[in-house]
Amino acid sequence: MDSDFFYKVKIKEHEFIKEWFLSEYDDYIKQLPMKPSKTDYQLNIKRKSPYSDEWNRLIRPYIKDFCKIFGVENYKLQSWFAQYDTNVDHHWHIHSGSHFGVVYYMELPYNENSTEFWKKNFPADEGEMVFFPSWWIHRSTPNLYDKRKTVIAGNLTFKNHAFLP
Questions:
Q1: CA–CA distance, 1 with 22 (Å, rounded to integer)
Q2: How confident is the model at residue 41 (pLDDT cuts 50, 70, 90)?
Q3: Count: domains in the chain
Q4: 78: helix, strand or coil
């Protein structure tokens, strides 16, 4: 863990997760509008996504390991999917109302397309999951390549815990 609470972990089941998600939810992904990125963020605020139970089961050990750093056993993870084709980006923003932002890089052909953090160099590779303070300003830079970027991102909130770093 970095001194300012940035954390990265390689997901051992990455190839399985990538194959499972992109094949099992292909029809679901196709029906999502592209504006400008293809995402189910707005849908998942109102209801649970069709992949959320299995996704949470697959990544639970990684989330729990991260939470243990802070002595946290109870947490809430709200996740969503996003896909970025050529020239698509997501503007600078923060994730208010949670403790940490989480990004799993399902498809990331070029690591310079990983999340850009304000005044912080913390690149990631495909198959890695990044945790960062939710208040840290970040963005998805324009995808300048002809290969898409696919992530599952989320907000991690510690429950019943006074966050004292």
A1: 30
A2: confident
A3: 1
A4: strand
